[in-house]
Amino acid sequence: MMNIKEYFDNLYKTATTDEEWEKINEYEHSVYEMEEGFEDWATAHNIDLSAMGAHGITVLQYWAWDFED
Question: Under a CB-based contact definition with an 8 Å cutoff, are residues 15 and 21 in contact?
Answer without folding.
Answer: yes
